[in-house]
Structure formats: C-alpha cells, structure tokens
C-alpha cells in the first residue's frame, strides 16, 4: 500500500477527497491531512508518505512552495496539484517542478482515479527498478571475492601497464594494496599430492578445503603485511604482499613457515610454497609470480612440504651441457642387460641429467621411453603378461600426477622390474628349450660324425652362440656332452659280451679303436676290457 497525504486549506475539500475516494482498490491508504504546506512538510518528514495531493493556493506555504521543498528534501514523493481554472501561472510552475499531474477544480472522481492509478503505476515501476538495482548490488557484493580473485590472478599472470584504473578497481574490489607500491612480492602455495589426495573428495569438500586454506593463509599473512591470497587454479594459490622495509622482505620466509605449519596442523595437508623475487611496480608482477611458480615446481627433486626461495634454487644443479642421447632403442638395449644393477644405474644416470630446465617434463619423457621400450621388448619376445599390462596402465594413469623425482623413479622401477623379470624368464625358458633340442639331437645322432656346425643348423643358431649358450646352461662344452653320451652308450653295450670292443667303438661314433680305448680310460679310469670285467 502506498500512503497519501491530502493538503488543502478548505476542510470541505479535504473531507470530500477523504470520503469519496475508495483508496484500497487503488493500492492506496490515507496517511493524513494538512491545512497548508508547512504542516504537510512536517508530516512528510515524520511519516512514510508516497503521494502528496495538494491544492495550489494556500496560506503560509502554498502548493508550489511545498512542491519545491519536497523536490529538494524528499525527491521520491510524488506531487499531484489541484487548482482552479485561472491558475495558469501556477500550472506553469508545477510543470517546472515536475509535478506528476495537475487536476483542475471542480474535481471529477473519474479523472482523479485515473491520475492516482498512473501515479501508483509510476511508484510500482520505481519500486521494481529499485529492487532490481538492490538485487544487482547484493549479487555484486556476493561476487566481490570471486571478482577480486579473478582480477588478482590477471595481475600476477598478465600484469598491467597502466595504473590509472587500479585505484578504482582496488576500491571496488576491496583490495588491500597500495596503488603506488614501491616493493611487491609474490608467493605460490601448491597442495602436495593434489590429484591423489582430492580424488575421493566431493566437490563440496574440495571447496571447503580451498576456502579453509585461503582463510588460514590470508589471516596469517595479514598479520604482517598488506596483501591477499587467492586461488589461481585447482591446487594452486598465489599471494601478493607489499613490503615497506627490508625487514619485511626478510620476515616473509618466517611468515610463510607459520602459514605452512598451520595448514599442516589444521588441514592435515602438506603444501609446497615457492617465493618469487621482489619487484618495483605492478607491470613486473608476472615475473615474480613466474619465479615463485618455478620455485614450487622444484619440489620435483627438493622434496615436498618445503618453502623454496631463489636462494634454494641457486643450489640446484643446472642443465648438463652433454645431453644423453636417449631413445626407445637405447632403453631396450639396457633392458636386455644381464643384470639388474645395469638397469638401475642407467635410470639413475638419465634422471640425474634432468636436474636442469624443465625437470618434470624431462622425467616424464624418460618414463615414456622406458614404458614403450618395455612394451616393444615384450612383443619382440612374444611375451604377454597380464600383470605387466596392468602395471603399465596404472603407471600411465599416474604419470602426470607425480610431483617428485623419487616418486616417479620408484613407480617406474617397479614397472621396469616386472618387465625385466618377465624378459629374463622368457630368455631362460627359450635357452632351456635350445639346450634341450641340442641334447636331443646329440642323443639321437651320437653315432654319426657330429660337428658343431651341424648341431647349430638344427636349432637355427650360430656355432659361437650355441657353444656359449650350452656352456652357460650346462657347465660343459658340446663336445664334452657328445663324449658323455657316447661313453654312456659304450658302457651299456660293454655289459653284453656279444659286442666286441671294436664294434662298440664304431657303434658310438669313433673310427679308431685305439683312440676310443684311450678316451674311455681317461674318463672312467679303466680300459673297455677292464670295465667289462667288473661284475654288475
């Protein structure tokens, strides 16, 4: 309901308007009456009045003067003038004062209803506009933290080359930093093990964690500095601080230590904090942010839950001038090494060479080469092992999430060891098959004039390779095994008196009975004849 005040020096006019108008259906209620402008003005000041229905000619303060006062003191109040036909000058004054309408006497109720309806509609439109503006203002106030975060992120990532608009934006977004800052610093906070630690958390839990971390860090930083902490991307938060003195710069490390300790204690989370360089203007802020982000990235080999400054980075080895020529084939060669120490030494060497620029990317490239090498070698050996395939899939899924070189090397070595053992088993099984084939061929053809070349041809391998392989697996040479098989058969035949010694010599592959007798005695300590005399 909008409230109406009737102002007229004639009581009959006031009572007529009061009693003849049905106010409620119009969305109105009568708030009161006044005999002149002075009384009306005091009522408007003390009551909630929306519409003033006033006569033009009145003693003490007429309607024009009242309208002038209301426009200056209560501009939201709508004024409707009532006057006679002869008040042309008053009509002109009312128009100048922007009265919403002007009704001539005698008053016709239909006309009055129409005027009041228009005024109510005007008030409703203004209320809607005001409510919409208030709603937008509320939304803006609610969005200030997000808008501030986005703007501060833009400052550290892109910087600004003009400080003319900073004051206005800082005031709008409640940024507690001086526009004409002499010394600025940036630090970066990263949640360690972010991808794994938050993988099972709901989105609400993640938001609560982020909110709590920002509150803790901002509260601690603001105890010593003008500045803000804000989220730049999931798992990473940046802070901008203003230094007044050299002592402020020195104090920052201690402040960030307290920040890290409180996050460890209250949130049960480890964080790595990188500290950037001090810059002298807002346009250089991205440089400080870049250094802070690089410092945080060096947890790759300095470890987690650290505060890493430029001084820390100075102790990190730089890039090697002699880059190791690494590819998949070199990895395959290493995996074929005869012992595991060779493999671990190789990985320690190549990972050590990554302690320069882009160490994380380098480590991931090494890992990809080794994973591919493992797969290719297994295919080459026709070895399909489900456990290795599952291990490879797990490693590939986690590869981008490893934050330290020790974590990555541990996971990679576990996978490579599975592959290395499978390769060794396959190689050993293949070797055993070759030795079994060689033995089988010798035992079947011992009576022939056997040569190493003939035996190698049966297993499709070189003579040198089968000699080394047989010796490695059995501890004896192929010739020794041929002699062993022939003498074993000779002993069996000597047990039968019907077989003559020279017949046995020829039967087991020797052409010279004298040589056969000497060889037999060399290996048994007895001549064939003496061996035959031994009772069974």
Could you state the oligomeric state of the chains shown?
Answer: single chain
Q: What is the CATH T-level topology of the largest domain?
A: Alpha-Beta Plaits
Taking the sheet with the most strands, its summary is: 5 strands, parallel
The helix count comes to 23
Q: What is Rg? A: 49 Å
Approximate helicity band: 55-70%
CATH homologous superfamily caption of the largest domain: Reverse transcriptase/Diguanylate cyclase domain
Number of strands: 10
Morphology: rod-shaped
Number of separate domains: 4
The stretches of 5 or more residues where confidence is low (pLDDT under 50) are 315-324
Distance between the termini: 132 Å
Physical arrangement of strands within the biggest beta sheet: 2-1-3-4-5
């Amino acid at each position: 309901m909008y409230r109406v005040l009737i102002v007229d020096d004639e009581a009959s006019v006031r009572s007529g308007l009061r009693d003849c108008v049905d106010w409620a259906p119009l969305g109105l209620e009568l708030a009161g009456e006044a005999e002149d402008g002075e009384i009306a003005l005091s009522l408007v000041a003390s009551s909630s009045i929306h519409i003033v229905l006033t006569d033009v000619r009145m003693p003490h303060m007429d309607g024009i003067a009242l309208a002038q006062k209301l426009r200056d003191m209560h501009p939201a109040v709508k004024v409707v003038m009532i006057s006679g036909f002869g008040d042309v000058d008053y009509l002109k004054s009312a128009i100048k004062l922007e009265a919403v309408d002007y009704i001539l006497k005698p008053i016709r109720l239909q006309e009055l209803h129409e005027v009041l309806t228009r005024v109510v509609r005007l008030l409703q439109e203004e209320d809607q506009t005001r409510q919409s503006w208030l709603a937008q203002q509320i939304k803006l106030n609610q969005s200030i933290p997000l808008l501030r975060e986005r703007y501060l992120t833009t400052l550290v990532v892109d910087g600004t080359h003009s400080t003319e608009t900073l004051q206005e934006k800082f005031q709008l977004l409640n940024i507690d930093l001086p526009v004409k800052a002499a010394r600025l610093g940036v630090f970066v906070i990263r949640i360690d093990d972010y991808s794994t630690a938050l993988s099972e958390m709901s989105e609400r839990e993640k938001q609560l964690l982020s909110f709590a971390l920002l509150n803790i860090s901002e509260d601690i930083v603001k105890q010593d500095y003008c500045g803000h902490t804000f989220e730049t991307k999931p798992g990473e938060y940046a802070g901008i601080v203003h230094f007044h003195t050299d002592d402020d710069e020195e104090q920052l490390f201690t402040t960030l230590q307290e920040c890290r300790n409180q996050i460890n204690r209250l949130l049960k989370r480890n964080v790595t904090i990188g500290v950037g360089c001090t810059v002298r203007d807002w346009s250089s802020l991205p440089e400080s942010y870049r250094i802070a982000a690089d410092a945080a990235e060096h947890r790759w080999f300095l470890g987690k839950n650290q505060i890493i400054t430029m001084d820390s980075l100075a102790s990190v080895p730089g890039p090697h001038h002699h880059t190791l020529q690494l590819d998949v084939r070199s990895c395959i060669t290493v995996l074929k090494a005869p012992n595991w120490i060779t493999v671990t030494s190789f990985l320690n060497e190549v990972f050590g060479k990554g302690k320069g620029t882009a160490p994380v990317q380098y480590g991931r490239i090494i890992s990809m080469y080794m994973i591919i090498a493992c797969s290719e070698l297994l295919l080459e050996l026709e070895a399909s092992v489900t456990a290795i395939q599952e291990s490879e899939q797990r490693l590939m899924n986690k590869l981008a999430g490893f934050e330290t070189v020790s974590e990555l090397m541990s996971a990679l070595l576990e996978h490579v060891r599975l592959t290395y053992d499978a390769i060794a088993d396959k190689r050993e099984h293949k070797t055993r098959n070759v030795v079994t084939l060689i033995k089988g061929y010798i035992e079947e053809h011992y009576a022939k004039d056997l040569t190493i070349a003939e035996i190698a041809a049966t297993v499709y391998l070189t003579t040198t390779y089968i000699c080394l392989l047989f010796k490695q697996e059995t501890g004896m040479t192929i010739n020794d095994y041929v002699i062993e098989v022939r003498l074993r058969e000779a002993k069996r035949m000597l047990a039968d008196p019907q077989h003559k010694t020279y017949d046995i010599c020829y039967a087991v592959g020797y052409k010279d009975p004298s040589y056969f007798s000497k060889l037999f005695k060399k290996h048994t300590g007895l001549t064939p004849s003496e061996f035959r005399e031994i009772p069974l």
